[in-house]
Design a protein that fits this description.
By secondary structure, the protein is mainly beta. It has one domain (about 10-20, about 30-365): Neuraminidase. The chain is about 5% helix and about 45% strand. It has a 4-stranded antiparallel sheet, with no helix packed on it. A 4-stranded antiparallel sheet has the order 2-3-4-5, with no helix packed on it. A 4-stranded antiparallel sheet has the order 6-7-8-9, with no helix packed on it. The longest helix is centred in the N-terminal third of the chain and has 14 residues, at about 10-20. The relative contact order is 0.15.
């Protein structure tokens, strides 16, 4: 039986009250006491933070700067500033992913928006890290429409060495259902930019479509999870599946109106795991499978912008559904853009307030 979750303002208020009291899940017998502290500050619109194989935090800032952050000292070392980046509204230097065999193949993939004549465009570029800077840029894919809003854009490399890219609708609702367009999609490429033979449509980078503005992406439990911004309702957590339609702009959240149900039945629409109304503006997403914070184990951690908090989304035993939601650091640090996790289980969250942005460290006290 299809599960539908529709929140009224009262339900949200009750949930917030509940979570504020618990400040964690129900496993109180094994819960760790948490300590949060500022690792570094004076940043400018950080977008992506990734735990690197060198045990540093790799970071992009929307203005075009890539840096490495020392998690022991908070020292920030710039490794490249991309002059071509054009930061307009929500656009600029966005997603980043490091090659999974970084020691032997030190490649860094980044997404950024730039001006091609008078046209605002997004591209994915692969660099090589030489130990101090990034060199040898190679374009992986280009000519993705960009805008001041709804650009996506997260990058992820899965264990089979496929590059996934989320793209927003770039404020053009005609694009997500158009399979010939690159916008409003999750794209899948080989690491050299070629199109995998097992993509849904031969010769097409499109893996899934019907997306509005997906800004979070993580692969865990052999599942690809994503977070996505809705319009004035229905922010979503999705499981991304090959060739599936996610409904936008006809469907918002669940297929719970007669028009949506008709479209969903005719178009193989995949409903979300969870939807929020009113919206919360979900952004970066990661999966916690460490022992340091046992109450967060087997949870998605979601950075939230509009409601300025970190959410724990406790997954069910099959990891295919969300059993409960808990919130942390409500309005303490402001808008939260992305989250990453160290091998020992510390959690790092970057803010996106535009003024003295920070990376916050969360660990067991």
């Amino acid at each position: 039986m299809k599960q539908m979750i529709i929140y009224s303002g009262l339900c949200i208020a009750l949930l917030i009250m509940c979570c504020n009291k618990k400040k964690g899940n129900d496993d109180t017998a094994t819960s760790a006491v948490l300590k949060d502290s500022i690792l570094t500050s004076k940043l400018s619109h950080p977008w992506e933070i990734v735990w690197g194989p060198d045990n540093f935090i790799w970071m992009t800032e929307r203005g075009g700067k890539l840096s490495r952050v020392n998690p022991a000292t908070g020292a920030v070392t710039t490794i490249l500033t991309i002059a071509e980046v054009s930061a307009q509204g929500e656009g600029g230097l966005l997603g980043m992913a490091l090659h999974p065999n970084f020691a032997t193949t030190p490649q860094v993939f980044v997404a950024y928006d730039y001006m091609n004549g008078s046209t605002y465009i997004e591209k994915i570029v692969r660099y090589t890290y030489n130990g101090s800077t990034l060199t040898s840029p190679q374009i992986i894919i280009d000519n993705i429409k960009a805008a001041s809003i709804h650009n996506g854009c997260r990058l992820l490399i899965t264990p089979d060495q496929k590059l996934f890219i989320t793209t927003g609708d770039s404020n053009d609702q005609t694009l997500p259902q158009n399979k010939s367009a690159l916008n409003g999609k999750v794209l899948r490429l080989n690491l050299d930019g070629s199109i995998p033979a097992d993509n849904p449509t031969p010769g097409s980078a499109v893996w899934s479509f019907g997306h509005r503005n997906p800004q979070g992406l993580v692969f865990a439990n052999n599942i690809l999870y994503s977070s996505e911004h809705g319009p004035s309702s229905d922010d979503e957590i999705n499981i991304i599946e090959k060739g599936r339609n996610y409904g936008w702009p006809t469907v918002m959240g669940f297929c719970n109106t007669s028009a949506e149900q008709s479209f969903c039945n005719a178009n193989n629409v995949r409903e979300p795991l969870w939807a929020w109304t009113p919206t919360i503006a979900p952004s970066g997403l990661d999966y916690y499978d460490k022992d340091q914070i046992p109450q967060w184990k087997h949870s998605l951690l979601l950075a939230v912008l509009k409601d300025s908090r970190l959410l724990q989304l406790k997954l069910n035993a099959a990891r295919t559904g969300i059993d409960s939601v808990f919130e942390f650091y409500v309005n303490k640090y402001g808008r939260m853009r992305d989250v990453c996790i160290s091998p020992e289980g510390k959690v790092y969250v970057c803010t996106d307030n535009g003024d003295d942005d920070k990376i916050v460290e969360v660990k067991k006290k």
